Amino acid sequence: MTSTSPSRPALSGVREAVRRTPAYPFTPIDAPIKLDQNESAQDLPPQLRALALERLAQQDWNRYPDLHADTLRRKIAAYEGWDPAGVVVTPGSNVLIKLLTELSGLGQTFLTVKPTFSVYTLEASLLGANTVQVPLNPDFSLPVAGLVEALKTEGPGLLFVTQPHAPTGHLDAEADVKAVLDAAGEGWVAVLDEAYYQFSGSDGRALIREQPNRISLRTFSKAWGLAGLRLGYALTSPELAENLQKVVSAFNVNILTQTVAEVALEHPEYVRERAEQTVRERERVLSALQDHPVYTALPSRANFFLLKTPDADAAYQHLLARGVLVRRQDKLPMLSGCLRVSIGAPQENDVLLAALGEVS
Ligand SMILES: *Cc1c(COP(=O)(O)O)cnc(C)c1O
Q1: DSSP state, 324?
Q2: Which terminus of the chain has a lower count of CB atoms within 10 Å, N or C?
Q3: Is residue 3, in this structure, part of any structural domain at all?
Q4: Which residue minimizes the CA distance to atom 1 of ligand 1?
Q5: Alpha carbon of 218 to those of 80, 325, 328: distances in Å?
Q6: Domain count within the chain
């Protein structure tokens, strides 16, 4: 859908960078088995949902929430073993991506790899940042030398590294991630997006602690099973957090989200169990597809994997006809023929495997 027809004025009051940026590429489609957004197959455990609802009933909804969600930030800090002054919360980490672009990419450089999470380049484009993308290596590993070179010549600005990477699911050696972050000196804000770390066994906190210009992004949308809540957070130095907090609008996390997240943080045991189950399911699905005659399932350290097919549209339609919704990624560089498939509940994965088994 385009909003302007040729006969209407071009809305030149809207900045040109905004007008020429395409909308976020997502079309909601109803399907019984939803493996298209890397969500958790399970909601918050029922007893925690009940507890959260009870607490919500006792709140004053006519009052503004905490200015910077201090209670929630303290609980996240305790969970992560982090200084509360270095924690910033927003409604989803997508908002942090936007705010970091405002903090550091606007009027400067936005450096990342290609292909990458589409929100990065979308936000950089909206704010008219000088976007520089270094292609991943053919095995999807980080192009360390290319990034180090760009960090020398393209600054100042914002660096985005995703571990495990999206949409490939690739996890790099920590030494390679460190080499890139080390090359991002004072002229850079260096971001490590860890949306999927619970499924990979990786943890960037030690690297983030090494320098005040480094920042990790984490989210309640994936392993925590709370995508509907919209909550993400940053772990960084108090100095960088203080500046980032300035670009966060006041009262930006509502009391409903704060309350539910606080309950989850008081009972976080379920997250590890669920992540372990997702990893077991991922390995089961990948090994079941190992000898597939037509499709290639690529290894992954996240809660999704890429399925390489000779005809992405045909494969997508075949799965959808069997009730399984996945995400096309075949228009991205290096990913021709690729679909992205989230790991679902065991019965959902069984339906996926049965549908893929029909193709020969
Ligand atoms: C899902 C995802 C996020 C999380 O976004 P939210 O706004 O917190 O839901 C961040 N980064 C990447 C790469 C993701 O895939």
Answers
A1: E
A2: N
A3: no
A4: 195
A5: 11, 26, 24
A6: 2
What pTM did the predictor assign? 0.96
How many beta carbons lie within 10 A of that of residue 230, not counting itself?
19
Q: Are 150 and 133 in contact (CB under 8 A)?
A: no
The answer to whether the CB of 307 falls within 8 A of the CB of 338 is yes
Pick from 226, 249, 266: which residue ends a domain?
266
Q: 18-70 pLDDT, tens per residue?
A: 999 999 888 889 999 999 999 999 999 999 999 999 999 999 999 999 999 99
Ligand 1 centroid, distance to 32 Cα (angstroms): 23
Neighbours of 185 (CB within 10 A): 13
Domain shared by 258 and 146, yes or no:
yes
Q: Give the pair of three-digit tokens for residue 271.
A: 């997250």
Reference 110, options 151, 148, 146; nearest CA is: 151
Taking CA atoms only, the protein residue closest to ligand 1 atom 14 is 195
Q: Which residues are registered as beta bridge partners of 190?
A: 159, 214
Q: Residue 30 is which amino acid?
A: D
Which tokens go with 55? 């607490």
Contact 300, 326 (CB under 8 A): no
Q: Strand 214-219 vs strand 157-162: parallel, antiparallel, or unpaired?
A: unpaired
